[in-house]
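hi! just following up on the protien thing from before. the input was this:
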Amino acid sequence: MFGVARLIRSLRGPAAQDVARRADSYGLPGGTWVAPGALRTVMAGIGTTLDEGTTCAELTRIVAGRFGCSAAVMRVHGVTVSGYESIAGDPDVLPDARWAAGVARDTTSPAVDGRGEQHVAQSGVGRARPALCVPLATGEHRYGILVCARDGGHFTHTEADLFALLAERAASHIRHAREHAEVSRTAGDLQRALRAEPGRPHPNLDVATRYLPAGKRALVGGDWCETVRLHFGRTLLVVGDVMGHGVEAAVDMTAYRSDLRSLAAADLPPHRILRRLDDMAAREPGRRPATCLIARVDPVRGQMTLAGAGHLPPVVISGQGETSSLPVLVGPPLGTGFGGYEATTYRLDEAQTLLMFTDGLVERRGEDIDVSLDRLARIRFAPAARVESVLDTVLARLVARHAEDDVAVLAARPSHVERR
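and the predicted 3d structure came back as:
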């Protein structure tokens, strides 16, 4: 940072007038780089986001605009060097990209050597044209180079010092951007690992599921759907909602799903599965509470058995496309340890579609839940619509893609089966 110290000293003596004179000679506003406040303002314009490309564009735009030159960045990723990026000014003024790439690969090359000589590239017509290459580096981390060129005189030491200061500022933000991108990739991989697809139901039951996480960054949250094959042509359908959002809720969601699959193998009725899930969750102090709705569907007998733990009731869509709610005896959420779950049995024939969902599908901020459920009840579906079409319709009509909470929804309808 000797160049910065030299710049500060220049602000304290007669040399400040020379800095202003050189700025004027390149078409710069007199004194632009003399005032420390102006320098801080310019530097604040670099790194306004966590996007690496945006930071590079901010750097070259400021350099080109303030110094009357053309500027571009070559980024380095491992052994890979990009071509010219974020070009500001006339690209024809820039040196041959192959020469600049060689400088970018040479991690030992300084911006200006010990004798004060600049890196000089040859133009396409064989005429020497001055070009300055400044490392985009902070500490031991090097992210590429800033390439500056212009027709006319050489760059001064003061300009080279300022380029280095701005490039270091940009490099610091590029480092943060790459670290953020790496963390985001890791979080995305974790979320994809947590987002297990539901199992396959029996062929006698058509099932479709959708999951929409709240927000733009999350891939998974605490809402989930599950289907488990049982004996004698029956299928267990489950929709659950863990308190909270993001990866933390998804971790607990995975625990609930794992416990559910284990309990389903014992072929317990829905209310007893909830009782066991509640017990298991209550013994883990750190696990978040969750709501849950379970339906054991038996297409052969044309019936389903429902039990809920603090969850909204499902709806049934008739063959004519009309919607009606199914009352369910709802116990407390899972993880409270209170128990008290009961089951209710209904008919379900081949013309009817069962719709199960989490509250994110219908709830709206500041609105009574009865109003929200009534909005769903007013939706009319095409007669005998396929389960995928049912989900498309309900998600579109309720504008679920802009919901403030995670949304999980499941539609199921018996296929053609022989009744016993």
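Residues 1-34, 107-127 have pLDDT under 50 and may be disordered.
The longest strand covers residues 128-138.
cheers
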